[in-house]
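Listing S7. Sequence submitted for prediction.
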Amino acid sequence: MEEQDYILFDQYLLEELSADERLVFEKRLDTDIEFKKSFNTYKELSNFLENKFENEEESNDFKSNLERVSNKHFSKTETPVDSKHKRGIFRIGQLAIAASVILFLGVFIFNQFSNPTYLDYNSHEPMTVVRGNVKDLIEATKAFNNEEYEIANKLIKKVLDKDPENSELKLYYAITNIELDNYKVADENLNELINGTSAYKDKALWYSALSRLKQRNIDACIILLKQVEQESEDYKQAQELLDKLE
């Protein structure tokens, strides 16, 4: 990947792209598999670093090292775009996926990311149209199955507002929120399913564990995985993940 791609990832996540630029970016995500993989990895690493370096002193030390290494490996000639994004103090995670940062983190990154991550387990079952032939629901199904989670999220929410007891739709809504890092909303919906009596109770437990995995809350993830019952279709995966985490 080029340096400009990582700057583009950062602009997209910070919502600094224009509407037209966002459309071009999202179209490329749909058509360029390697670009999409790099973007997803960038998001995961950025989230991890933000959680890892919460302490202010530790964060500042990391950002200083990150800036020093980036200056060493990237071009000394800055474009206006470079100047805009190489702010005085780097945002945690900015350009973190770039080769220079990987070189700096070395064994640390290797050890962290040799462990299982959410991306290892987010192969979702295809969504099917549930409870009627509603236009928003048809579009939501299409968006979800195309991994257009932001679009699917908004459409599912519209249908759920009219049908709040739809457990199947509530599960898919939670999944889109995990994908979009809206963990609070996702976990609230999953908890409702876990504490309810619907057929999606076991599936909600599995996704609740995956939500914690993505948040790098490993202790909570392990506790939830241990609650997945042997009869569940996700039991085998849950045990596999549990073995890797313990």
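Caption to Listing S7: primary sequence and predicted structure tokens for the chain studied. The longest helix spans residues 33-52. Residues 72-78, 83-90, 92-113 have pLDDT under 50 and may be disordered.
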